[in-house]
Amino acid sequence: MAKEFIKGNEAIGKAAIMAGLDCYFGYPITPQSEIPEYLAAEMPKVGKVFLQAESEVAAINMVYGAAGTGIRVMTSSSSPGISLKVEGISYIASAELPCVIVNVQRGGPGLGNIAPEQADYFQATKGGGHGNYRLLVLAPDSAQEMADFTMLAFDLAEKYRNPVMILADGCLGQMKEAVEFKKTVRKEYNKDWTIGRGEKDHKVISSIDIEPEKLEQRNLKLLDKYKTMEKEEVLFEEYLCDDADLVLVAYGITSRVARSAVELAREKGIKLGLFRPKTLFPFPKKDIYRVSQKAKKMLTCELSTGQMVEDVKLNSHKDTEVYFYGRCGGVIPADLELLEQAQKVLDGKGVRF
Amino acid sequence: MKTVYEKPKSLNDVHFHYCPGCGHGVIHKLVAEVIDELGIQHKTVGVAPVGCAVFAYNYYNFDFSQAAHGRAPAVATGIKRSKPETVVFSYQGDGDLAAIGTAEIIHAANRGENITVIFVNNAIYGMTGGQMAPTTLVGQKATTAPYGRDPKTMGHPIKVSELLSNLEGVTYIERTAITTPGEIMKAKKAIKKAFQNQIDGAGFSMVEILSQCPTNWGVKPVDGTKFIKEKLQEVFPLGVYKDLSEERKGGK
Asked: With a threshold of 0.90, does the pTM exceed it?
């Protein structure tokens, strides 16, 4: 099939329409505005709804309303905008509504800047808002995966009746690459729970249980769902890990740089490998353990001051040495820079996390 | 035997949890009667606020979505846009609609969303225990304004119907009060019109209803109505603030 040269953000928009997106609600923020711009132009052509909300807060609550009717709905934003959405995301997770939320991460904290960062890892994977909830978090590494994961996200959202987040970054959003848009077969899920069907068996979408025992049951039901995700939905990629003396762990744009560093190293006879989580929740716990046991040394590289590395450390074999190297504020390390850091670790000069 | 009165089908057979003298029970019934009369029970979706009416879905016998504090117009927008064939209304108090949800109500109104808003104004926060509301009167005491509302530091009561009626997107706004049988019937007529407008595709309609909260006003239940007539109506005059219902029928 022919490939299309397209920006990461636009690839998300196009893939969402192919996946059957019915409604998009969003608010402009750099570096993700190409998503609403693309959908503003394309959704009316297919008779679907695009609405620019008055705020991120309103947008996520429109998503909540629409998701309750069981249609396919999406919103997108970037870091500060996602912070505004987390109240609504908590309600959506509690009411068990399917939707797709895209975070094209930018530099923070605060207003930060519009350059890429990966400092929303905690927010994305540990809940983000109040209460015991988890998002299913997909981390693309290319414009191709921006498209593929968007299509996957809609299916997973309906399968689990849970919000799914695509955790990208400003670099992936702005980068143009060749993408093959693969049409997938849409699976149909039970919609008996939805409102607005015009049926006599009335339904209520809610996240309130005033009785403690009932609310506890709601929490435990959610926990069960998250445990199932951990069993069944883990996605990751291993690259030259089998004989590696040191395995780099990275996701998103950082994993692209890390892959180059591994290739440069191999040319020099240095045995580096790459472990790339594609799902950040569920985190590939068992596979990190397996790889860490063999490699003995792990170097986590992130565009943050150290977030995913906590999960790497937590899930690595107790005797494995875990190191961290991060850049932030919008600075992306070069492949040679990561290679240099890897060499330091191999020379015993690295800083343990 | 001839049935002269019965509980609306759109209400469940349960007890209200509301305080003695509270206006919510009357307003719930009016909305349910209107929905029955229009024959739209199974295509209606209500959106419940945060506040005393948070459990509205326990009382109504049709689809409901609970909303975060103040976000009901956004939630209603999401439902209506995804299922235009439904009849969607939000049921909101003054704290929900006129404080934390100001942005959502203004923009839903400005977009001319084809929804119905039931705005219950009792000039106080009920559920949380009598704190100052955006609509609390000047000089009125509240738990967070124990010396009375001082406009110099706490601002003046917001007049939502007046404010929203300036927006192009708005089709119909009326302020009513549930003080006497006559006024209650007027309120019902306004509610019916606000729902009929939605069915006709005429756009955004809101009915503001001045309602009793004797518990948090610190008055006897029987004096709640007196407070509305003597105090609230002075600041919030009853009447139609905007009406383009006929002109906008059929989405014009």
From this structure: yes
